[in-house]
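For the sake of transparency, this paper describes our internal protein records without simplification. Because each token names a local backbone shape, the row as a whole describes the fold. One such record is reproduced below, unchanged from the form in which we store it.
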Amino acid sequence: MQLINEMKLEFMSKSNNEAFGRIVAAAFASQLDPTVEELADIKTAVSEAVTNAIIHGYENESGIVKMHCRLYDEGVEIIVSDNGKGIEDVELARQPLYTSKPDMERSGMGFTVMESFMDGVEIFSEINAGTTVTMFKKIKKA
């Protein structure tokens, strides 16, 4: 794959920045001329990743969410990371309907949604050091 362009963004872990992250990622990915459906998939997956960083990583405390996007000739890679509390059991967290915040009425579908809308999702997490979610979406050429 050939790298075409990349960008990095950092923003505070405030819930209203979820929409900001989603729109920035979609605008950046639009350089590849994706379909409306591909853009919607990217926005949905980024929303879930950013929300997880804010709600679970920082538990609504102040922190920084980082987003790194790379455009390749075949698609877009989006990396969302935090320096929050980390995930104790990544495989358990990936299970549909699992939530560590049942009192907040969380659906437990964040990773499932990301995996459904993107072509690849990798999760790396370390307790008290944070979580990094790397997602890839192929963009079909017209």
